Amino acid sequence: MTLLLDDLYLVYKELEVNTKVSSSDLKQLKPSVFDSTKNGHSCNCTFVFTVLNQMGISNDIGGKGVRGNPFYTTFA
Question: How confident is the prediction for the chain on average, in pLDDT?
Answer without folding.
Answer: 91
